[in-house]
Design a protein that fits this description.
Layout: H1 2-23, H2 32-48, H3 51-58, H4 64-80, E1 83-94, E2 97-106, E3 111-118, E4 124-131, H5 135-182, H6 204-217
Antiparallel strand pairs: 1-2, 2-3, 3-4
C-alpha cells in the first residue's frame, strides 16, 4: 500500500513539474532587452512628434478622447522641453503581454513616466505618458483625498441625524392637527326668553279685570284673598 502511495506522489510531482515548465516557457517575442530598447526609442520619438499640428490638421478624423490626449501631450512637450536621459527602467510580464516603464528627466528639470505595453507578438499595443509624482507628493495627495472623503461622510451622517431628529416634531404636530379637525364646533347657547314684567301700578284696570276673571273661574265672587303680583306676556 505504501509503495502505491509513493508511486502516485511521484507521478503527481512529475505532472506538476511538466505543467510548471510549460507555463514558464518564455515567449521569444517578449525579450526584455529588446523591448526595453524599443521603449527608449519610442520615448525619444515622442519628444520629436508634433502633436499640436496633428490635432489641428486631423481634428475631423480624430475622436474626442484622442484629440484631448494629443492636446495634453502638446502641453507636456512645451512644459518639459527635450528629453535628457533615462533614470529608471522596469520590465514586467502578465499572461501574453509585457510592460516596460521608463522614468526619464527632461530639459526643464522635470520628469516623465512612459508606460509601453507590448502584445504577444512584440508589437506596441498601448502606451501612455504621465508626469512623475514623488512618493511624498503622492502620499500627500492620498492623505488629502482621505480627509475630504471622511469629511463628506461625516457631513452626510450629521445631515441624516438632523433629519431623524426632526421626525419627533412632525409626529407631535400631526395628533394636534387631527384633534383640532375632529373637535365639534361649539353650538351657541340659545338666548334666554325675554320676560317682560309690567308694573301693576301703571295698569290697574287690567289687574282688576284679571282678578275678576280668576274669581269667576274659581266660583268665588270674593276677591279679597286674591293678589296679582305680576303680569307676564308670552309671545
Amino acid at each position: 500500500m505504501k509503495k502505491k502511495l509513493v508511486l502516485m506522489l511521484c507521478v503527481i510531482s512529475c505532472l506538476v513539474l511538466m505543467m510548471g515548465c510549460s507555463l514558464t516557457k518564455e515567449n521569444e517575442n517578449l525579450d526584455k532587452s529588446k523591448l526595453t530598447k524599443t521603449a527608449e526609442e519610442f520615448a525619444a520619438q515622442w519628444f520629436e512628434y508634433d502633436f499640436k499640428s496633428t490635432v489641428e490638421q486631423y481634428a475631423d478624423q480624430m475622436g474626442d478622447e484622442q484629440a484631448d490626449s494629443y492636446k495634453e501631450y502638446a502641453k507636456m512637450q512645451k512644459k518639459h522641453g527635450a528629453m535628457k536621459k533615462v533614470v529608471d527602467k522596469s520590465y514586467s510580464t502578465a499572461s501574453d503581454t509585457a510592460t516596460v516603464t521608463l522614468t526619464l528627466t527632461t530639459e526643464k528639470a522635470g520628469k516623465l513616466v512612459f508606460t509601453v505595453i507590448y502584445s504577444e507578438t512584440g508589437e506596441i499595443s498601448d502606451w501612455k505618458v504621465e508626469e512623475y509624482q514623488s512618493i511624498g507628493k503622492t502620499m500627500g495627495r492620498a492623505g488629502l483625498n482621505t480627509i475630504m472623503s471622511m469629511a463628506i461622510v461625516f457631513a452626510v451622517l450629521i445631515f441624516i441625524s438632523f433629519i431623524i431628529s426632526c421626525f419627533k416634531f412632525i409626529g407631535n404636530a400631526q395628533p394636534k392637527e387631527a384633534a383640532k379637525a375632529e373637535a365639534p364646533a361649539a353650538v351657541p347657547a340659545p338666548a334666554p326668553a325675554v320676560v317682560e314684567e309690567e308694573n301693576l301700578a301703571d295698569d290697574l284696570e287690567l289687574v282688576a279685570v284679571i282678578t275678576a276673571a280668576i274669581a269667576a273661574a274659581s266660583e268665588n265672587e270674593c276677591t279679597d284673598g286674591l293678589i296679582v303680583r305680576s303680569i307676564v306676556r308670552r309671545s
